[in-house]
């Protein structure tokens, strides 16, 4: 691996190390043993099952981070990954419940396409409004985050409510043909392959194609790009739609690969965490992969520390905030 490729990984490792050192100091002040906390966390992740759970957590984080990173190349801020994830799961559920019985080789591409379409259409709404210079995409994508879960709730409390699930409303179980395959008797599912392919496609599109060059031109100066003949409005809508489609795939993966049905608490905030990952990684594919793995470790450690150290899960938010502040402090012009 070249020195250029290793540099961002080293930078992110140093940031994580500095944040962990500060976090250890907080644990000491709280009367906890940071070495024991680290040992407990490592022990829980050292097994095959523990490591596999990290990969399960990584999958939606990679996809929602790509959903943010792709539009950011044009200077767009997509804060709507959470809503796009929910709409992807909702559309994939519609496909799984409405399509006639099909073999798995036909059903899986259909529900994946439906998941992508759900997220893409949800993100295209603020994209169209932004292209028409009516509403800023940051506000529109943020507000739509609160609408999508309501649509999911209406569906599982109403027309898609499974019989016998009055205590915890949910959709009927998906047919086996619609479920993503799992690997090595773990919960790692085919969504991980989709996430890695999406990350590779993002890198190829942005760095190796003419469209990626045009996207960077729009991000640098949209007015100049327009005068050069680049269809800026089309790129704005397409970039947000493609990003939303990636988040939609994350929702499809959670529904079809983890839960096996549509549920109200489908996401614990994957879309918002993906936004933070993309921002901390600077939109770089290797950075996204590394930060997604790091955030999976942090959230898994939070679950362990609740049991072994009696700490609330909110300590995870403290550690994530420390990482953010350290990155902010290291950014050029941070003092200003």
Explain what the structure shows:
This protein has a domain at 58-279. 72% of the residues lie in helices and 0% in strands. It has 14 helices and no strands. The longest helix is centred in the middle third of the chain and has 28 residues, at 104-131. It is globular, with a radius of gyration of 21 Å. It starts with a helix and ends in a 6-residue tail after the last helix. The model has no long low-confidence stretch (mean pLDDT 88).
Characteristic key phrases:
about 0% strand, about 325 residues, mainly alpha
Query: Total number of β-strand segments?
Result: 0
**Average of the residue pLDDT scores:** 88
> Which segments are poorly predicted (pLDDT under 50) over 5 or more consecutive residues?
none
The gross shape turns out to be globular
Q: How is the main sheet built?
A: none
Count of individual helical segments: 14
Helix fraction?
over 70%
Give me the strand/helix succession.
HHHHHHHHHHHHHH
Strand content: under 5%
Query: How far apart, in Å, are the first and last alpha carbons?
Result: 36 Å
Using only C-alpha atoms, the radius of gyration works out to 21 Å
Broad structural category: mainly alpha
């Amino acid at each position: 691996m070249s020195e250029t490729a290793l540099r961002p990984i080293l930078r992110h490792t140093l940031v994580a190390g500095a944040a962990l050192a500060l976090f250890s100091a907080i644990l000491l002040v709280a009367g906890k043993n940071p070495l024991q906390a680290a040992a407990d966390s490592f022990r829980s992740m050292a097994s095959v099952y523990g490591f596999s759970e990290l990969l399960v957590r990584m999958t939606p984080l990679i996809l929602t981070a790509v959903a943010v990173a792709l539009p950011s190349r044009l200077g767009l801020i997509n804060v709507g990954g959470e809503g796009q994830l929910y709409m992807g799961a909702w559309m994939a559920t519609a496909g799984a419940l409405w399509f006639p019985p099909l073999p798995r080789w036909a059903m899986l591409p259909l529900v994946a396409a439906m998941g992508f379409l759900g997220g893409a259409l949800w993100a295209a709404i603020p994209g169209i409004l932004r292209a028409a210079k009516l509403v800023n995409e940051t506000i529109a994508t943020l507000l739509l985050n609160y609408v999508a879960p309501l649509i999911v709730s209406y569906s599982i409390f109403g027309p898609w409510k499974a019989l016998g699930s009055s205590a915890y409303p949910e959709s009927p179980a998906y047919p086996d043909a619609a479920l993503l395959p799992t690997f090595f008797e773990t919960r790692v599912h085919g969504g991980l392959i989709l996430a890695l392919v999406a990350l590779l496609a993002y890198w190829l599109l942005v760095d190796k194609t003419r469209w990626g060059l045009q996207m960077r031109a729009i991000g640098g100066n949209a007015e100049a790009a327009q005068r050069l003949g680049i269809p800026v409005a089309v790129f704005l809508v397409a970039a947000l739609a493609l990003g939303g489609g990636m988040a939609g795939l994350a929702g499809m993966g959670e529904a079809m690969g983890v839960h096996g049905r549509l549920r109200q608490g489908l996401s614990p905030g994957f879309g918002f965490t993906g936004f933070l990952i993309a921002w901390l990684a600077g939109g770089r594919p290797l950075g996204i992969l590394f930060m997604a793995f790091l955030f999976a470790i942090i959230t898994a450690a939070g679950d362990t520390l609740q049991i072994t150290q009696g700490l609330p899960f909110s300590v995870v938010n403290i550690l994530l905030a420390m990482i953010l502040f350290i990155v902010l402090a290291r950014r050029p012009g941070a003092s200003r």
